[in-house]
Amino acid sequence: MRLALALALLAAPAAPAPADVDAALEGHVLPRIAALADAAEALSDAAAEGCEGLEGPFRDAAEAWAGASHLTLGPLEEGGRLRIVHFWPDGRDATARGLRLLREGGEGAWTPEGIARASAAARGLAGLERLIFEDGGEPCALTAALAADLAALTGAVDAGWDGFAALMRAAGEPGNARFLAPGEAEAALYTALVGGLEFTAEQRLGRPLGTFDAPRPLRAEMRRSERSLPNVAAALRALRELAALLADAPETDAAFARAIALADGLEDPALAGVAEPSERLRVEALQTAVREVWRTAEEEIGAALDVPAGFNALDGD
Amino acid sequence: MRLLATTALLGALALPALAATEGEVLTTYADIAEAAYGDALSTARTLQEAVDAFLAEPSAEGLQAAKDAWLAARVPYQQTEVYRFGNPIVDDWEGKVNAWPLDEGLIDYVAAEGSAPLEGHDENPAAGLNVIANPSFDLSGETVDASAITPALLADVLHEAGGAEANVATGYHAIEFLLWGQDIGAYDATAGRRPWTDYAAGDACTGGNCDRRGEYLKAATDLLVSDLGYMAGAWAEGGEARAAVLEDEGGVQRILTGMGSLSYGEQAGERMQLGLLLNDPEEEHSCFADNTHNDHFYDALGIRNVYEGRYVGVDGAITEGPSLHELLAKADPQVAEGLEDALGVTQDRMTELKLVAEAGMPYDMMLDPANEAGGALIQSAVDALVAQTREIERAAAALGGEEVAFEGSDSLDDPDAVFE
Questions:
Q1: Which of A151, B181, B186, B305 has a C-alpha 20 to 30 A away from that of B362?
Q2: Can you tell me the distance from the alpha carbon of B129 to that of A292, in angstroms, rounded to the nearest whole number?
């Protein structure tokens, strides 16, 4: 709400420039989703061989996820798949409970059907991270089953994007009930961009930052695999890629460059430094820079596209 | 949702005739809030009387009367939830009365068979504090004197202690836990089965510390009444929430923000899809009382109330007036019809959930991963909420035009004419 008026005052473009939905799909969405499916497949292949040495394949999958986690529309929205691929944040330690129930179920329950019915918090990257980084990949059969489940899930998301991309390209055509006008496909991609920036600033960075008096390093995303900061950097790079394909937005791109430089300059992969005053300042500076990207993108790209951002999952928080 | 008014600015038609209607729509919106929060307050007072009577003379009948009063109080309150996200005054306050889910081990004893955390974890080191059993304890490195359980202790010390949202010490769900207790049998037809003797005097006391449990229940109920009193006043004539809406030239977008945010992120996402994904029987909004089907039903009804401009009070009184639907129908009849239809579909899906629950399959049974039909009922309601969100986005875009035109005509034309 607070930005609405500012935007209304600032924006005075002669005519909106239609975003090239096709370019965004080909140059960003489809390759990012495919990379996620490929990384999950590689993790699954490695886990099928044995439960040692899975740290590298896990981190590769996390990197791919951070580059695709903003694509919450379409196949990842269906049936809450987004939360299954990586269940986070987890305010009530549902991952621990879900894994406990899976362990209690025993190997006989670790079938594809059994895993598919298990708690989403134990499935996907959240459960795998605990098994791989806390328990050395044991029990191996469970790690392998969870990795295979993740590969199947992300494979289905990848396959689902064929049809959903066709719907986006055909926005406004007769019979397209999902996208009634070309602007709706643009708005959906723009919502993904803005939602991804908000999630990065307020969740990935905001949760561990907490407040100065009460920093929360244990709340950092994927702290066990030390992917907290790398996920921020990977997300920013992916979002920058999407932004550039949506509109000619030099100020947004410059803001991205500043934020990415700050992320790359930090050497605190688990963001544990939020509890130490000097290091904390640097994480706060990064958060400020990401918020600046968010604000700039809303002003520059929102105005250029002449589309409103839709609702995202954080709106109900 | 950032309500970008850029759409609005461009290509908008100036239709000053709609301006007066917009003011009337906002008045209807504020009137419904006043009526619904007023009902929430009066039913909470009834709950307070029932709790006082029960604590004065604990009995099975007294506990049941308090439970019945709690259930009745939820009917109007849930219909107010649509006001939360569009109104900062409500959103800043809401956590005191309806925060959820809770690590109930903060408040009282919990059993290992339940699904609440038994001890502290990454997000909430205080998850197993058990205030009722501990007159003194350490919280975030400081010793807390909890020898007297007062509204101030609950609101100022315990609620969201340590910055953990799951430390819910106040509001409907804390009271629900104190009345019903944990729902132990996962996926079965029972709700929480706290015995009334948890409040009994002397040797009859079960669960320990019955006097402190009674103090807690009393403090939480009194606090609920005073918090609801504040909000009912804020929407009455001259109240700050009413004034903020009526003064806001973008007020109609506020209504849509509230509708969309509750539909999508909150209800479809956090409250419904998440429970289905986790299969956690505590991932139901009223997990102790098994009243979740009603929570969802009345949330959805509240969304429709503010769109249709009509609210039926707990005493049967009807509050109605010029509606957002009428305003939207003037701007874009197709979008108005699409939104009305989508809200109708959602209400049908919620009715299905409600009737199945009332026929003996409570919401936590639907969360059982082995219950395909139950899960499908929840999923179809989630899908309907997601679908209605798209229509709300379309409505926001369709009404954006008039809104800025209204601002323009305001300054260009005779401003006094607008509200005549």
A1: B305
A2: 40
Rounded Cα–Cα distance for residues B115 and B192 (Å): 13
What does the pLDDT average to over A215-232? Answer: 97
pLDDT band at residue A68 using 50, 70 and 90 as cut-offs: very high
Nearest CA in chain B to A115: B369
Which residue of chain B is at minimal alpha-carbon distance from A311?
B1
Tens-place pLDDT, residues A125-162: 999 999 999 999 999 999 999 999 999 999 999 999 99
Q: What is the ipTM of this complex?
A: 0.80
- Is A92 touching B (CB cutoff 8 A)? yes
Structure tokens at B408: 């323009």
| Cα of A238 to nearest chain B Cα, Å | 22
Q: What's the length of chain B? A: 420
Residue B168 banded pLDDT, cuts 50, 70, 90: very high
Probe site for chain B from A211, A311, A312 (most B CB atoms < 10 A): A311
Report chain A's mean pLDDT, rounded to a whole number.
92
Of A97, A106, A62, A96, nearest to A204 (Cα)? A62
Q: What domains are defined for chain B?
A: 6-417 (1.20.1420.20)
**Checking DSSP bridges between strand B318-320 and strand B310-312, what pairing results, if any?**
antiparallel
Chain B residues touching A84 at Cβ < 8 A = 277
Q: Do A118 and B389 touch (CB under 8 A)?
A: no
